[in-house]
Design a protein that fits this description.
Helices cover about 55% and strands about 10% of the residues. A hairpin with a 7-residue loop joins strand 6 and strand 7 (about 230-240). It folds into 2 domains: about 30-280, Glycerol-3-phosphate (1)-acyltransferase (3-Layer(aba) Sandwich), CATH 3.40.1130; about 290-505, no CATH class. Strands 1, 2, 3, 4, 5, 6, 7 and 8 form an 8-stranded mixed sheet that branches. With about 500 residues, it is of the alpha/beta class. The longest helix has about 40 residues, at about 445-485.
């Protein structure tokens, strides 16, 4: 299992601090440096409020996403989003590529419209999908400043996309935005781009002009046990919806509703940006670095264990770590506590483990999971004849592509997801049809056999992954036992033993 080793930032406990938020332009992948003018020009858009995507295709994609999600994610916890009458703009941080918007999509039932990097809409295969579900392209400042796109063309495409987003949101659809305008690997929020705030303000104007319910901005916290691990855990939470202020300019409302893009005033955009930044900061790690965040998780576990209420889910861990963060802000002279927790957490992380390794006494768990591992191998062997021919090849391709992409580590699981997504859409029909035709010939029952084959393949894959999970658990138990018998493990238990009596400062 690959360890989650990420960037290092100066340590501290500052809360929302927009002035010091990183504002670097993202590096450009080879795909982002290619502007496909023809495809961008012909991409579906609509300024009437009608969703530009194909509804039947959307339903197909949703089912395929459900299947792919069950393969990539081991445990998924999703809070219910607040009910609102009008459109919703779901806004979150962006550290895990395609998985981030799909996690939001999975958390609610409404049809989504998304805006994203231009090449996502023009790629050979993924672009074919995103165009048909109605996603809108944006040519970012990163492309403009590096001379990738003609400024006038970018301005026209961006205005068209933003007006489409505004009209869809005003009509009651849900939108997904990543307002940082890029993906990154930091535990702290980066500076927010204003594009999403601008079309959101304009959506409120259009809704007002047409007598429709006012939309809201819905902050979303996306939490992964380690975001680029295969079969990781996910927790999706929702902050308080943000009311979108209505501009005091009737002509602005009228022009927008008539199909003309009008920029909202900066004095309205900036306060809304700052409010969103503050809200997202609260429901994200907001730690100086990943080492500190893992230390907060460790302290949360130790505190829960000391009260004989061990944390049993990622959601509980995230909320406990957040409470630790808030407590540390209020308490003086906690640097030694955090430093010891960081050392202990780093020991665990260095061998691919985390605070769940410790029992209620603070000792390393030494249980053997040999039987569980054997059952896992058996489950994988029994289902391999179906799983490997139908899904194994594209899984390996996705794995290889994720490890060799120039998009960054955040896109690793994107390639895994694409491979899993394409399996039921393209590979299963082709492989099943070939197999059934060779077995039964051109019989009238061939379509029935084909339909039955899909749930069989899916169930086989789920059992295979169930076995994989049990084998992974066995691997974790072996790492724990090796750690427990080592000098490093002794140091870990010494640190934990020193931490437990000091937890009283954390109420």
């Amino acid at each position: 299992m690959t360890r989650c080793v990420l960037n290092h930032l100066p340590r501290g406990y500052a809360m929302a601090d927009y002035e010091n938020a990183p504002d670097e332009l993202p590096s450009l992948s080879s795909s982002a440096t290619r502007i496909n003018v023809r495809k961008l020009e012909s991409l579906p858009w609509d300024h009437s409020g009608k969703h530009p995507g194909n509804r039947p295709f959307w339903e197909v994609i949703r089912r395929a996403v459900d299947i792919a999600w069950s393969y990539l994610i081991r445990h998924s916890e999703m809070d219910s989003p607040p009910e609102v009458e009008g459109g919703s703009v779901y806004a979150s941080t962006h550290i895990n590529g395609l998985i981030d918007p799909l996690a939001i999509m999975k958390s609610q039932d409404r049809r989504i419209i998304a805006i994203g990097r231009h090449d996502i809409m023009t790629m050979p295969v993924i672009g074919w999908i995103t165009r048909r579900i109605g996603s809108q392209p944006v040519i970012r400042r990163a492309e403009l400043e590096r001379g990738v796109s003609d400024p006038e063309f970018a301005k026209r495409i961006n205005k068209r996309s933003m007006l489409t987003m505004a009209n869809c949101i005003a009509s009651g659809h849900a939108a997904i935005v990543m307002p940082e305008g890029k993906s990154h690997q930091d535990t702290k929020m980066h500076a927010l781009r204003t594009g999403a705030l601008r079309f959101t303000l304009n959506a409120a104007s259009i809704a007002h002009e047409r007598g429709l319910p006012q939309p809201v901005i819905q902050p979303v916290g996306l939490h992964f046990r380690c975001h680029y691990w295969f079969r990781t855990d996910v927790f999706v939470e929702f902050g308080e919806p943000i009311t979108i202020p209505l501009l005091d300019d009737p002509q602005h409302h009228t022009n927008l509703a008539g199909g003309e893009w009008i920029e909202p005033p900066a004095e309205q955009v900036i306060p809304l940006r700052d409010e969103l930044y503050e809200s997202l900061t609260h429901i994200t790690p907001n730690a100086p670095d990943w080492e500190t965040y893992r230390a907060w998780h460790l302290l949360g576990h130790l505190r829960a264990n000391s009260s004989t209420s061990p944390l049993s889910s990622l959601k509980q861990e995230v909320l406990a770590a957040r409470d630790i963060r808030e407590q540390l802000i209020l308490i003086e002279n906690t640097s030694s506590l955090v430093e010891d927790a960081m050392e202990a957490a780093d020991i665990l992380h260095s061998v691919g483990l985390d605070a769940r390794t410790l029992d209620v006494r603070g000792r390393i768990k030494r249980e053997s999971r040999l039987i569980r591992g054997a059952l896992g191998v058996l489950a994988m062997l029994l289902t391999a004849p179906i799983t490997i021919p139908t899904t194994g090849l594209q899984a390996l391709v996705g794995w290889y592509a994720g490890d060799h992409t120039d998009e960054g580590i955040d896109s690793r699981t994107t390639h895994h997801m694409i491979a899993a997504l394409f399996s039921p859409l393209f590979f299963w029909p082709l492989i099943s049809l070939t197999f059934l035709y060779s077995l039964c010939g051109a019989t009238a029952l061939l379509p029935v056999y084909l339909a039955v084959s899909f749930p069989i393949i899916h169930m086989s894959n789920l059992v295979f992954l169930w076995g994989y999970d049990m084998l992974s658990d066995f691997g974790d138990s072996r790492r724990r036992r090796r750690l427990a018998s080592s000098a490093t493990g002794g140091r870990l238990e010494e640190l934990v033993g020193q931490l437990i009596p000091r937890l009283g400062v954390l109420k």
